[in-house]
Amino acid sequence: MKAIVIKNYGGPEVLQLTEVPTPSITDHSQVLVKVRATSVNPLDYQVRRGDYASLFDLPIITGHDISGDVIAVGEAVKKWRPGDKVYYSPRFGGSGSYAEYHLTDESSLSRMPDNLSYEEAAAIPLIGGTVWEMLVVRAKLKKGDTILILGGAGGVGTLAIQVAKSLGAFVYTTGQSILHEQLQHLGADVVIDHHRKNYIEEIQAYTKGKGVDVIIDTVGGSTLSDAPLALANYGTIVTLVDIARPQNLIHAWERNATYHFVFTRQSRDELHHITRLIETGQVKPIIDSMYPIEDVINAHQRIEDVKRDRPLLGKIVLSM
Ligand SMILES: NC(=O)c1ccc[n+]([C@@H]2O[C@H](COP(=O)([O-])OP(=O)(O)OC[C@H]3O[C@@H](n4cnc5c(N)ncnc54)[C@H](OP(=O)(O)O)[C@@H]3O)[C@@H](O)[C@H]2O)c1
Prior knowledge:
This is Zinc-binding dehydrogenase. Residues 10-318 form the Enoyl reductase (ER) domain. Keywords: Cytoplasm, NADP, RNA-binding. One of its GO terms (molecular function) is oxidoreductase activity. It is found in: Cytoplasm. The protein has helices spanning 42-48, 118-121, 125-138, 155-166, 180-186, 199-206, 223-226, 250-254, 268-279, 296-304, and strands at 2-6, 15-19, 30-40, 66-73, 85-88, 101-105, 110-111, 146-150, 170-174, 190-192, 212-217, 231-239, 258-261, 287-292, 315-319. It is of the alpha/beta class and 320 residues long. It folds into two domains: 2-124 and 286-319, Medium-chain alcohol dehydrogenases, catalytic domain (Quinone Oxidoreductase, Chain A, domain 1, Alpha-Beta Complex); 126-261, Medium-chain alcohol dehydrogenases, catalytic domain (Quinone Oxidoreductase, Chain A, domain 1), CATH 3.90.180.10. The longest helix has 14 residues, at 125-138. Helix 3 crosses helix 4 (155-166) and helix 3 packs across helix 9 (268-279). The strands form three sheets. Strands 3, 4, 5, 6, 7, 14 and 15 form a seven-stranded mixed beta sheet that branches. NADP nicotinamide-adenine-dinucleotide phosphate is lined by residues 41-43, 126, 130, 150-151, 153-157, 174, 176, 194, 218-219, 221, 240-241, 262-264, 303, 311-312.
């Protein structure tokens, strides 16, 4: 089969289209999936450049989202049959999605939403589980809460805005001016241009000094230290971004803040909630751009390039 193989860690050029053996079922609970589409996550380029080198033996196939068709199932698999349409995130540390076929345990599979194409579905699994974990499991977001989503135009942000809105929250987010209308269309009540304005001062002004109940951090930097200044008393900060340097959390005390640190473990139970929101029309995948898998190098360049001519909005999808 065709696959994008990484033989050495490095820049996008290490992503090489290669012919590799097609995997086959060796265990009763396994399922073989024909991959129809995948998408690019920051985790893909972090793996590619060697950030997780201690967890892998080269060569590797990366990629963390799959939509596709079940091709074959092990003897113990009762729930899935050849022809079923599925979507899921491959287990971190195993073989990834940048390949024509993927072998997985049946426990990782979810039924693909009825109303999505393969390309749309591939934009969801990793961010879907992550957003549900952040907003519902950790922040316990409820109707009437105020939330600030930092990085609203990103893969995580575009879905988080929609899910927060569906839960009845008042949504503040950050994004470049040129995207404000699109972010409002997704459900953001207020959009702050992070290139021109200081989000802490803006939130202080909008909330008359009270701050917001929940802050979602998808950008890192000094957010853990600074965000409490935009947080209401007893508010919650949920971060996705690991930063290997000390953070000063003194402002968190003044606010009686609660912090949650999220590293997604692929949970299909959480993805099921997103499937329901998609099928009831409350949430949709936002696709920034689409590339054939052969153009994966350009796709990685687009997500990593901080000086893009057009800002990123949503997910970059790779069709197989
Ligand atoms: N822990 C986990 O389980 C987990 C799961 C998923 C993702 N993540 C992490 O979460 C982060 C976001 O993922 P993603 O898929 O949403 O990334 P993405 O699609 O690349 O989006 C990043 C977004 O953040 C914005 N941004 C960058 N710097 C900013 C700043 N200082 N203030 C406000 N916005 C800023 C960018 O806007 P501009 O275009 O204006 O720069 C862009 O819209 C990544 O670091 C990823 O590794 C972690």
